[in-house]
Amino acid sequence: MAKEHPSTETIGKVDPVAYDSEEGIDRNFVEALARGLRILQAFHSSEERLSNLEIALRCGLPKSTVTRLTYTLTTLGFLHHIHELGRYRIGLATLTLGRMAHSRLDLMQASEGLLQELADSTRTMISLGIRDDLSVLYIDSHRSQSTAITLNLDIGSRLPLGTTAMGRAHITIMGVAERRIVLDRLRALSEANWPALEHGISRAFLDIAELGCVTSFGDWNKEINAVAVPLKLGNALPPVVINAAAPTRTVSAETFISEVRPRVITAARIIENRYKRNWLQA
After folding, report:
1. Where along the chain do its domains lie?
2. pLDDT in tens, 13-56
3. Is 241:139 a contact under the CB 8 Å cutoff?
4. Which of 147, 167, 179, 198 could, after both became Cys, cross-link 161 (CB 3.0–4.6 A)?
């Protein structure tokens, strides 16, 4: 008999989160700052070079607004303007902030050495990711040294929230109110694709309950299999998920379940214990 998947309406049913005013406007939210940060997020790597028009299209902002913001970000060193090309790339100030944040994550110390060992033993790409709005962002990544992993993903890569194992794992650990808002936004983005998306998200809750991980076998990309496990690190860090991924031709779904899954779960528990121990000793 086919398993019945819980509806996301049941999973996330709650009154919408109240805003600071009756009009639904958060008066503590600084729109100009948010737009500037969205421009920095438009760059998918530190080497990418974008024009004001390309940035405007990625951010959904008027080109005139983008022109003023890129000028300001360049003046502060967060962007670098390549005059002969009329394009921008990420500036040293942004890269410095990234390095500082990365080096100060106690999580990196807790996972040191373990992620590479896990990648080699499972012949997969092992990554840590946090949620970034309706995407997930890779903050660490290790490839198997014994097998050629051709996935074009690395630190700073962003993946969709609703179709990837890592993204769905993040959805399973959200608070009920937050999850309801996120699901509504995902549905609004694509009503036509929502039934399949909802089915996959619902299945993620069954996966967690029955397998201890979330799976995505060809859901995001038909040539990629993956499993993901949320890390229980407390409230000192944003929610983090550990993910194992590999081409379907290299590691089958069956192998992911029987061999990769238990090793990723074990690694997750080791990282949690190391992190908590380091936190208590700090």
Report:
1. 19-95, 105-281
2. 444 443 444 455 677 888 999 999 999 989 887 678 999 999 99
3. no
4. 167
**Alpha-carbon distances, residue 192 vs 72, 162, 240 (angstroms):** 40, 14, 30
Task: Please give the model's pTM, rounded to 2 decimal places.
Answer: 0.70
Burial class (CB in 10 A: 0-12, 13-18, 19+), 18: exposed
The residue behind tokens 């036509």 is 192
CA 81/CA 176 separation, integer angstroms: 43
What integer pLDDT is reported at residue 107 of this predicted model?
80
Domain 105-281's class? alpha beta
- Contacts of residue 243, defined as CB under 8 A and 6 or more positions apart, other chains included, come to 126, 127, 128, 129, 164, 165, 166, 169, 226, 227, 228, 229
All residues at 6 or more sequence positions from 186 whose CB lies less than 8 Å from its CB, including other chains? 134, 161, 162, 194, 197
Which is more confident, 267 or 233?
267
- For the segment(s) 19-95, the CATH number from 3.40.50.1820, 3.30.2350.10, 1.10.10.10, 3.40.605.10 is 1.10.10.10
CA–CA dist 124, 147 (Å, integer): 8
Question: Whole-angstrom Cα distance, residue 274 to residue 59?
Answer: 39
